[in-house]
Amino acid sequence: MRGEQAAVKQAVPDQGQKAEKTEREDTFLQGVKECVPTLLGYLSIGLAAGVVEKTAGMSVAEIALISILLYAGSAQFITAGMIAASMPATAVIATVFFVNLRHILLSAALSPYFRHLTPLRNMLVGALLTDETFGVAINKAIHRKRISEKWMHGLNVTAYLNWIAANIAGAYLGQWIADPETYGLDFALPGMFIGLLVLTMASRNKLLRDTVVAISAVVVTIVVSILYGANIGVIAATLLASTVGLVIEKWK
User: Disordered: where is this region (predicted)?
Assistant: First the structure.
């Protein structure tokens, strides 16, 4: 009995030391490296966003500013369209607010992995969180209880700077790229998300449940988008599909 107790006591520190070692290895530079596969998606969509914003009548300085402050692909596309249509500022702000509500869900999903940080440091981590960096981070967090703060900053900052550069480049190249869809740029971001989804599903070893959740999300998105619009469809799919996954997990 004493031998078993000693083994348990020894195992607990070993696990803690292993976690600390893993976190030390996840440096800022490592976060930069793990962001590289997503940069092509950022680059293509950022170029397309810059072209659309330039077409809407925005200057290069305005495009740079909106990329720095708003930093949201879908919201920037919507903003450019609404500006081109001469919509009032209140309508633009309200629309962007509802479109970006999904970031509350993304932050909530990652928050358990940063409980060791202060509220201020958590805010700094969440300030630059995007759909893409969330996908990379949640894939890394599958077999962990916490994520390195330095690694997350490396991931976020790399994506952020690349997005700003891509938007500015799109603003300059807009006069030569009148239609980004001709070059398949519109598919780069969905393609990147599909890749992240496949990697996540493969590493979790819960293929049946993940497939059911994915199919549920697609069905809900299509049905709700037809009835109420694409933005509501995405939010509804997120809530209902995650509920389906939770019910399956608890039932099993």
Answer: 1-24
Euclidean distance between CA atoms 103 and 97, whole angstroms: 10
**Residues 22, 144 contacting (CB under 8 angstroms):** yes
What are the DSSP calls for 111-161, one per residue? GGGGTTS-HHHHHHHHHT--HHHHHHHHHHTTT-S---HHHHHHHHHHHHH
Instruction: Report pLDDT digits (tens) over 152-185.
Output: 999 999 999 999 999 999 888 876 766 666 666 6
> What secondary structure letter does DSSP report for 183?
G
Residue with tokens 């059911």, as numbered in its chain: 212
pTM: 0.71
Q: Tokens 């300059």: give the residue.
A: 172
Phi-psi region of 148 (alpha: psi -120 to 50; beta: other; left: phi over 0): beta
Measured from the Cβ of residue 26, the count of other Cβ atoms closer than 10 Å reads 20
> Are 17 and 143 within 8 A, CB to CB?
no
Angle, helices 60-69/28-55, rounded to nearest 10 degrees = 140
Radius of gyration of the chain (CA): 21
User: Hey, what amino acid is at 56?
Assistant: A
Q: Is 161 exposed, middle or buried (0-12, 13-18, 19+ CB in 10 A)?
A: exposed
